[in-house]
Amino acid sequence: MDDSAGEFQVGQFESAGGARIFQIPMQVFPGLSGYAYLVLLEEAGEAYRVLIDSGSGFGGSNQQLEAGLQRVAGLTGEPLGFPDLTHILITHGHIDHFGGLTYVRPRTPALIGIHELDQRNLTSYEERLTVVARRLDEFLQEAGVAETRRQQLIELYKITKSLSRSVRVDFTYEAQGMRLGPFEMLHTPGHCAGHVVIRIHDVLFSGDHVLQDISPHQSPEHLTLSTGLDHYLKSLTLLQHWNKGIRLTLGGHRAPTTDLNGRIEAIRQVHEERLQAVLRLLEQPQTVKDVSQALFGEAQGYNALLALEEAGAHVEYLYQRGQLGIDNLEELESNKAPVPIRYRCLPRGAE
After folding, report:
1. Which positions ≥6 away from 50 have C-beta within 8 Å?
2. E strands of 110-169, at which residues?
3. Domain with CATH 1.10.10 in the chain
4. Which CATH class name applies to 11-119+161-267?
5. Pairing, β 46-52 against β 87-89
6. What is the pLDDT of residues 21-75, one digit of tens each?
7. Are the C-beta atoms of residues 84 and 50 closer than 8 Å to each other?
8. What is the CA radius of gyration of the chain?
9. Where do the CATH 3.60.15.10 domains begin and end in the chain?
10. Contact, 42 vs 241, CB < 8 A?
11. Which architecture, in CATH terms, is 133-158+272-345?
């Protein structure tokens, strides 16, 4: 669920259509490195200086982003600071991909875009933080997490988000016909409600939808509509159909991917194996917390919350398909407040 930052070195790529692409590394959170991408392209008399994602704004990530632009300016001999950007395209509304906007926005005339379903993550950030924290508390109660631990996890969730604030956006992708000049967007909900992947010629910017070596984190749709494993798996299929000769996939974390369809199938296999493991575990009634511990062990720090959400997403997927039932239904019926839910496998064909 995490990776460590390597040396600060700007990666360089080029698309078949001549777009110059620079990969800027950042330490977005302790133990988690990530990338923003600068794309330079002259097409049809238009100069594009496009930043894809902006890092988290946490720690030194803003300075690393700025230093990365300076490094690119040195490589190209062109002025490429924040004032020189034309657009900033956000792949999705998770803080490690847009949190840097609070620093960048006052320093650039660039137009900022995001998908409609993630727009409020940026423009009404404080409101969303409050709403999701309430839903998270209910989820953790139903998952079987004890009150003291539940409050610790909610505070941890809030602390990691506390450094950001609402920022204005200039356009949304669906309103633009899912494109900006030569840049094409595909809506891929699941990991995040408004997640998009962005294609320029034969290069794909996958955000967190497809990552090399790891399966992107999933959380239950109970927390946020248009997330959840069902949406994610359908979006993987949609991307396979949209894959028109994509040669290189650049993610928000990890190494580039050169076999997109192969990587998609590997991720799909991870989730199929995890679903089968959940079914085996729930031959005996258990809570989501029990399932999380069986799948991932005693995760620590923020990873404990991620593990609970990942387990919850898989339990939710199976429950939606009638493969699980609630073992303590009478307890739910007799309590107005949320109570720990114990799930169990149903015989095939049962409801």
Report:
1. 38, 39, 40, 41, 85, 86, 87, 88, 89, 180, 183
2. 111-114
3. 133-158+272-345
4. alpha beta
5. parallel
6. 999 999 999 999 999 999 999 998 999 999 999 999 999 999 999 999 999 999 9
7. no
8. 21
9. 11-119+161-267
10. no
11. Orthogonal Bundle (1.10)
